[in-house]
Amino acid sequence: MTFIVVPHGGGTDLTTRTYELSYRRLRLLKFAAIGLGVALVLMIGSWFYLAAQATRAQVLQRDVRRLEGEVAEVDQLRRRLVEMEARYAQITRLLGGVRRREPAKAAAPPPVARDTAEADSADQALLPRAWPLAARGFVTRGQRGRGDGERHPGMDIAVALGTPIVAAGDGTVTEAGRDSVYGLFVRIAHGGGYESLYGHASRVLVKARQRVRSRQTIALSGSTGVSTAPHLHFEIRRNGTPVDPVSLVHLPE
User: Fold this and answer.
1) Closest C-alpha to 217, from 134, 152, 147, 155
2) C-alpha torsion sign, points 89, 94, 99, 101
3) Kind and range of the H or E run holding 165
4) Which one of 72, 170, 187, 243 has the minimum C-beta count within 10 Å?
């Protein structure tokens, strides 16, 4: 193959030049061009592949960070669950301890029972031993004396609004009315110096000087007086001194 170069214009060198290229060299140039093209295609393909891998690596790093966060949350929840299980077990032991002591007190003569051993049989029959509600309820606070650093002369029993409040024993209603602290309340004298009080009622169903029998409905539970939720404040006193109701009343099963 021959290439002829013919100069144009106003230059001084207007000599025509001739270049010869053999077919063998032409084929070599052809193969070289094809090789360069293939290499260029491979380089472009490799770049796209590497770019895709880099993008995937970034996505995987984000997934790893997210999974690490989720693992940390799961670990925190696991520790929280362990703490809650420990608290639940502690509460269960406490409640179990209270329940285990109850039958023991019922089987053995309680302090008050020893005190009443000198009373006559009539007074024994009048003792306020019945559970003061028609429902079991839930004891949220017990009787505390001066030695406990907190004074609470009775027992608080959380119960639904309107639950019948019943007399803990036979007796005579000495007071039935409203008090700024106890709200609507009933006080019953049982004999032998014992009396019981039922506070925070929503409705009183008995009157003063009325005779009542054990388990007779005398009021309905409520949240009157100094109270934040429906419950019964139940007190037992002997000669004006608070007596722990747990030591005298038969707690429900």
Assistant:
1) 134
2) positive
3) strand 164-166
4) 72
The H-or-E segment that residue 237 falls in is: strand 231-238
Query: Two tokens at 34?
Result: 């094809």
With 90 as the cut, is the pLDDT of residue 253 above it?
A: no
Contact 220, 164 (CB under 8 A): yes
**Hey, what are 30's tokens?**
């052809």
List pLDDT tens digits, range 131-171: 999 998 888 888 776 555 567 888 999 989 999 999 999 99
Q: Give the separation between CA 146 and CA 242, rounded to whole angstroms.
A: 11
- 185, two tokens: 């309340």
Cα dihedral sign, 223-227-232-236: negative
197 - beta bridge partners?
Answer: 187, 235
DSSP for residue 150: S
Contact 141, 227 (CB under 8 A): no
Task: Give the residue ranges of DSSP H helices in 10-22.
Answer: none
Site of tokens 């009542």: 212
